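Retry 2 of 3 after timeout on previous attempt. Resubmitting structure tokens to design endpoint.
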């Protein structure tokens, strides 16, 4: 069955781990998105906080969850444990940049008349690709991670 699946998906020998990582990232990202989205909905809709404060708290909740998923499930290389401070610092840097971009996306779409809930989905589409590459190539980088 495993060989047949590899043939159907045209997975070459040695690429299984990359595919597993992408699938894990997408599942983890989905869990992160829905956690943050639900928190945003509660803060923005039910508590009627401003867009900024609702986004900040929802994102903090989502970021913690996202870090744990990515560090301990998606990007699990043993060398990362030796560089926990560097990995965490990089994650915080990219997360702060992400927040500014995310807030700009959601705020501009809201200003254009779209619901901020729709803005959340638009933003998530962008960050799905954006963050995978940043996480893989910089934040949770494993090859040569001692030199960078």
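Retry 2 succeeded. Sequence:
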């Amino acid at each position: 069955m495993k060989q047949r699946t590899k043939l159907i998906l045209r997975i070459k020998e040695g690429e299984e781990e990359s595919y597993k990582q992408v699938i894990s990232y997408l599942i983890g990202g989905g869990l992160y998105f829905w956690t943050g989205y639900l928190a945003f909905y509660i803060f923005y809709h039910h508590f009627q906080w401003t867009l900024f404060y609702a986004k900040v708290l929802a994102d903090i909740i989502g970021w913690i969850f996202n870090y744990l998923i990515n560090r301990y499930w998606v990007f699990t290389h043993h060398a990362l444990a030796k560089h926990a401070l560097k990995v965490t610092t990089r994650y915080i840097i990219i997360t702060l940049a992400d927040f500014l971009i995310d807030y700009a996306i959601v705020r501009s779409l809201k200003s254009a008349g779209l619901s901020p809930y729709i803005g959340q989905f638009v933003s998530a589409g962008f960050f799905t690709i954006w963050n995978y590459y940043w996480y893989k190539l910089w934040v949770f980088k494993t090859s040569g991670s001692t030199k960078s």
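Attempt log closed. The mean pLDDT is 88.
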